[in-house]
Amino acid sequence: MASASAPRNGVQGRIASAATTLAAENQTLIAEIRRATVMMKEVGVDFEKDNEFDMPSYVLFGRRNHHMLVKQLEDGVVNLVKAADECTHLSSSIQSIGKDYQPAAELTNFSKLFDKKIKRSKADVSSVSQSQLWLRQFREAIWKVHHEGQPMPGEEQEDIIMTSTECTILNATCPLTGKPITELAEPVRSMDCKHIYEKKAIMQHLRTRTAQIRCPVTGCPKKLVVDRVDCDPFLLMEIDEMRSLNAQRATAGVIEDFTQLEQD
What we know:
Elements: E1 2-3, H1 11-49, H2 65-100, E2 108-109, H3 110-123, H4 129-144, E3 187-190, E4 196-198, H5 199-207, E5 213-214, E6 223-224, E7 229-230, H6 235-263
Antiparallel strand pairs: 1-2, 3-4, 3-7, 5-6
């Protein structure tokens, strides 16, 4: 697929606009995949609660029909995570082309350029690490039904530190503004350390430094680079999940308070 790339008025702008639209549509698909994995996790937990064996269903596969169902749900989450990874690579490549494309005198082979961007995205493991957490969250939720507070088998040998089942957001507030993550006007996240900041504040922070600086989150050793701080495809949906989780906790707290009053 080749296209004449001789300088023409508005070509670069139209390509950038089309890339933005396509990337946004792709991120909508990723959000739907995320919602599906959450629903499958909840269904799996319900099945596991019906399991009288003190072992997760994906370990006891074949013992009973609902063990098979939980295993099938896990396999479905695996496939959805793979699909989300592919969508993430696709979005990253589309956005990169829209941002970097410059018309030139020679023809541009967009097919070859796109393949190159895809390979580069897949080489960057950090670009898909968030979706990989979804499978971990599914397995951990199943495990916790009968093993609350206990580490999952083999957890001690894992080199990658995973977040909890409840939330994948690492810092609750922006380290520069002090605002809760759920109240940020334009949240962005470091692709390297996964910490979240208010975009205007972190960009101003980076511009005032002449050399690479560390992430402003206390104790984080990672360096920050402007091109690796962005609103990735998962960030906004994870913030929405955090809002929902906070609302659920608040509701549960109110109910508990009423229960205590009744007991008194």
